[in-house]
């Protein structure tokens, strides 16, 4: 048995670092733990936390290749965030000009959820708990 204890972080490569940094910090509200300019790689590395827990490593690289993400491409399907008030979260995103899909109900749990995209069109989900 491998004895995994938790997910440590999720790594995301952005096309426009400043735009993605703003999205994840100012719109989603993640906090910056550290930011490193890796000049030799023409890259930034930004460590982001949610409620004090390190969760996302945001990278920039020059000219990253596109990765298909929709409708159901192979690989990571989406990143989901838990929220306690889905309507308020959707309203906040709308105020920031972030478009969300219509709210749906999970047929297995009865919980409400919606999808939206980050600046690089990576699929993100809000799931009401």
Automatic annotation (TrEMBL):
The keyword Metal-binding applies. Gene3D superfamilies: 2,3-Dihydroxybiphenyl 1,2-Dioxygenase, domain 1. Keywords: Metal-binding. One of its GO terms (molecular function) is metal ion binding. Residues 6-129 form the VOC domain. SUPFAM superfamilies: Glyoxalase/Bleomycin resistance protein/Dihydroxybiphenyl dioxygenase. This is Glyoxylase I family protein. It comes from Spirosoma endophyticum.
